[in-house]
Protein: 3-hydroxyisobutyrate dehydrogenase-like beta-hydroxyacid dehydrogenase
Amino acid sequence: MGSERGVIGIIGLGMMGAAVADVLRGHHRLVVRDFDQAAVERQRAAGAEVADTAAAVAAAADIVLLSLPGPDQVRAVVAGADGLQAAARPPELVIDLSTVDPHTTREMAAILAERGSGYLDAPVLGRPHRCGAWTLPVGGSEEDLAKAMPVLEGLATRVIRVGDQGSANMVKLLNNLMFGAINAITAETMGAAAHLGLDPGLYYTTLAESGAASVSNLFKEIAPKMVAGDWSPAFTIDLLAKDNRLALAMIEGAGLEPPVAQAVVRANAAAQAAGLGSLDTSAMVRLLEARQSPE
Structure:
């Protein structure tokens, strides 16, 4: 599998990475990598080439996109023994779509800069099914962003440079912290409504189209799942918990003491301890039931 200009590498074929591959496939030759063999085979069947290591992806592609669960996976893919930095021919540019902390981005960017590779953090604002219409905040140089635009324009309707490397990570972590807070209070109020004797479905429909300032798009998405008992994951509690822990560490590392963020992190941890981590964030409504006071 020789190198060819215009080839796009994708490492990480979860819900987000698979959506990226599906959108880009019609416009680019793809070389992909993931530890999940079923995910790899789905992409192979759709026409993508498969590489055995991250270094092999780098050898084949000018631009490599990362869509990974968190900092540990990004570090392994970039700096591991068979990682991007070990490639005989490193990629011209790495674009990390993952949700990680700014420190990880800056450290990985520095490692790849020694091999001549550019690096952008471009974490996704949007659900997987909205790929092609995402908003992508981007951290990195204007020069690298210009190189990335032919790819990023296929994924997003809004691409916004928000600063240097790590800046987009800050935007994403703060955004997901708001997600965590809205998710937690939606779960509590929906659960409380049921316990108080209100019809949860009627409670939802009364509020959803009321124009009340409290009603968010996230409320409109997850409250019906709570009513239906549908915990199929669009975004798992485990991933939200990881993102919110990173956000809290980032904020506390700046010398601040954020009480709401701390409460959200505790609520996520309680949901994980209750065995809900692999379920959709809407499943947090079950946590209030588990804590119900005895009659």
Residues 1-5 have pLDDT under 50 and may be disordered. The domain at 170-290 is CATH 1.10.1040.10 (N-(1-d-carboxylethyl)-l-norvaline Dehydrogenase; domain 2). Residues 12 and 67 are 5 Å apart (CA to CA).
